[in-house]
Amino acid sequence: MRSKLAFVSIFLVSGILTSRESFSRAESDETASLLNSSRLPSDTTVNLPVEADSPSEAADRRESVLLNGIDSEVAAILADLQRERNDSYNDLLKDILNETRNSSIATGIYRLWEETSYEAGLKLADNELIKIVNGVDFEPATAQAAMSYLAKMKHLESLELLIEIAGNRDSEIASSAIRAIGLMGETVDTTEIKSLLDKLKAEDPFAEEDLVAALIVTLGNLRYEPAAEELISIADDAGAPAIHRRFACISVGKIGRIEDYEVIERIYYEADNANLRSYALAGLAEFPNQNITAVLVQALRRDSFWRIRMIAAEKLAEANSPGVRELLRYKIVNDPVKQVRIASIQALGKSSKRSDRNFLIEYFINDKNPSDIRLASLLALTENKIPGTNEAIFSVMDKLWEKDEARFLEFTCLEVSRIKWAALAPVYERMLNHDNWIIQVYGIRGIRRNNIASLMSRISRLDNEDADERVRREVKQGR
Description:
By secondary structure, the protein is an all-alpha fold. It contains 27 helices and no strands.
């Protein structure tokens, strides 16, 4: 799901780009979560002089910190490894996980394993669940991270434990287990999850709002048809908690009973609450064997509520008609709400048509366009691996190489550094040649993220007396 997150990250930098020096972080809403920007070491960090490392010492630096460093140093290394999706130390981390009593370290390890799809840690994660089932003391944050990891790996052997934990008296732990079951998706044998439907019927929706919300979402993710009757009644109940009605609309669509389509359609057209209507539209788009392109086009073209237009744009990503693509291009240029324009870019980026790809390239290059929307175009280009992307970035570099007053080149390099696409190697190499230390750092991170072996020696050469201390620090931290 990185693309949605990445496009939302544009919102974080847009304020900087428009005011040049300041921005405010928008509060995350129910349909999007913000992507945290990478934090560089503070200028005030004191570094003692060090002798040049031998090749073996350089290779072992991270291992030494993981084995012997204080918790804060280990946590920093784990954050770097997760950002890079670096699986080189996963075996070593098994031993560290067994001995640590720091829940932040344990959580960081599970998150890294989840990010790198590391299978050898599944038994340890299972042990966290066994602690809960057996009533042994456990760290809630560690247990929740372990559940998320098991879910990402679709480790069905842990399903019985998760179902048992779903009945835990701690509703936060129970909710995490329920979400993990749902994240395993349709691989779950639905005959084993009747207990979740029974729990949904038994819980007080107002006293246990988050728990019930997790149940609604999970039953939909599992396409558990026996739950459809209960879910459609929640969606259509004006007295139910608003968040439950919204989630139920989507879950009903995922289950996809034909007889439920008209109920969700009525909610979309007749509900007074615009937020509920937006979820109903998303639910309609989930029904299998229902072509609602015309409904989505009308919603994107005419609806006055921006969230409905945004969802319509997102759901039109798979549409392949010239009229839809023309509408998306129009919304990119003219819609008054940034989120709708970015969703339209994301949808157009899925097009295989050369004309649509050229539109995104030209939009990114054109410095008369809003900077945040240009960055969204860049992300569409990189995430969809569109030919011509490198040349587009070089064009921007040529214009701003000497003078980047609005910091657009800086933010371009930041976004590129987060992309997993080795074809960007020439861009990363050029970033290393810039005078701005932060652009060099972004180049280093992009090279390491993509494990571009041919450029590793270029990174090592930046560890010299003429380089900015912050660049040298980044070089050393990656060893």
